[in-house]
Amino acid sequence: PDINQWTCPCCDNTSVVDKEAAARASEADQIGEDGEDGTVEAQKMGLTPDWIISAASFDVFGLERPTISSPTIKGLLDPCTNSKVAPNIPAEKLYDKNDNGLKLSNIWKGFYVLLNPDFTSQIQWRFVNRAIDEVESESVPAVILICRNSTDTAFYQRLRPYPRVNLKRVSVLFKDYSHTPIGFGISIFCMAAKDERRTLYPKFFSAFGGAGEPLIPVDGLFVQTNEFWQLLDRLGEFTGSHHRDHWVKCSECAKWRIVPVQTIKRLENSGNLSWTCDMLDPPRSSCSTPLTKYE
User: Fold this and answer.
1) Segment 119-166, tens digit of pLDDT
2) Which residues 6+ apart lie within 8 Å of 235 measured at CB?
3) C-beta pairs of 87-95 under 8 Å, 24+ apart in sequence
4) Nearest one of 39, 21, 38 to 30, comparing CA atoms
5) β-bridge partners, 73
6) What does the alpha-carbon distance between residue 215 and residue 208 come to, in Å, rounded to a whole number?
7) Per residue in 7-26, pLDDT tens?
8) Do strands 14-16 and 5-7 pair parallel, antiparallel, or not at all (unpaired)?
9) Is 110 helix (H, G, I), strand (E, B) or coil?
10) In 3-state terms, the chain is what percent helix, strand and coil (to 5)?
């Protein structure tokens, strides 16, 4: 195919690439990709990955899946869609940049909201404030918010009452980025009206907790309760099992190896703390097996 032509996936029309514009874009992309200096990266929208759309719409909100005859997600609003013609999020209600989903005349009321605003801080804080107002006035039942993990900003501090998950780098996977946007991480918040919280917050942690670090709001009073210390114990046990290296020394070759936590627990429970390399999983079950990069 001619590399200077491209075909639109929506209308099938063929267009010719402007070589000078492409060269300028390539040069800008090499200058930087953090989106703070007007580069190509700033023009990307951070299109929401399908797994987040599915988890928010169906696992948390409990909305019906679209069908061929009804291709939108009924009851869902995307107030900052990339396109009304070919929306990345097939919500029932869409507002694009021309509509301006921030206008009060553009109603959010009654919809579950999946909100992934532009990454620029000026846009983020405006949509965050609108989302908070809609939830706290109980105009909407809930909002799933995808935003920059900008803990030093005022808009992020306003989100303190709401549970969130700080996504792992491998979990973000925006459709128009080949990597996590440089310079900041991504958080997902669940903002629910009072009568929805007990139902939606457990679903939120179930749907998103495995994709990153779940966090809940705490204050000085909670820190003084037994529940807080019980929570720390549970988190310590979970972290020790899933996010720590567990080392054991071979009693024959004296090599130190990283092994699963189950191996350590099995040795402790048996009372026999002797361990050798032949107890490793094949084909590594030998003292002659080289140490791994991390070991």
Assistant:
1) 887 888 899 999 999 999 999 999 999 998 888 888 888 999 999 999
2) none
3) 88/47, 88/48, 88/53, 88/175, 89/48, 89/53, 89/114, 89/116, 90/66
4) 39
5) 91
6) 11
7) 554 455 666 545 454 444 44
8) antiparallel
9) coil
10) 35, 15, 50
